[in-house]
Amino acid sequence: MPRDTITPADEEKIKAAIKEAEMNTSGEIRVHVESNCEGDVLDRATEVFADLHMHKTEQRNGVLFYVALEDHEFAVLGDAGINATVPDHFWEDITAEVIRHFKQKQYAEGLSKGILMAGEQLKAHFPYDRHGDINELNDDVSFGE
Question: Distance (Å, rounded) from C-alpha 52 to C-alpha 103?
């Protein structure tokens, strides 16, 4: 079960990274953790992205970190607004950093580092607007089966 691997302390660390990353950007970051991934990891991440209504942000600037723990699957997925602006290697660099920590079973550390990396790019392309920006998506880690 994902909650056996991601402890409440891990969850708080991940949530703190999301809050820090979102402090300087209008971008929205979510993390979803489940045990198994049915089918292709990017297809499943796309389903979760839709289930979490991440495509409904005003600037289409949501980023999902998807993890299937038992299947050792990971994907980071950005909405159309982000994909149109970030450098080509953006997703690969984040994925490499996250997986480097996952191989050592440092899940919260890997996710936190990846989230902060995403936040830096989001800040460059989607700066925080202190007058009109609202937190459009919940910062909590979501869990599947």
Answer: 27
Predicted confidence pLDDT, tens digits, the chain (145 residues): 667 788 999 999 999 999 999 888 878 899 999 999 989 999 999 999 999 988 887 778 889 999 999 999 999 998 888 888 888 788 899 999 999 999 999 999 999 999 999 998 888 878 766 545 555 556 677 678 6
**Residue-by-residue DSSP string for 77-88:** EE-HHHHTTS-T
Distance CA 99, CA 137 (A): 25
| pTM listed for this prediction | 0.89
Domains of the chain plus CATH, in order, are: 2-130 (3.10.310.50)
Q: In the chain, what are the helix, strand and coil shares in percent, each to the nearest 5?
A: 50, 15, 35
How far is C-alpha 95 from the geometric centre of its chain's CA atoms? 11
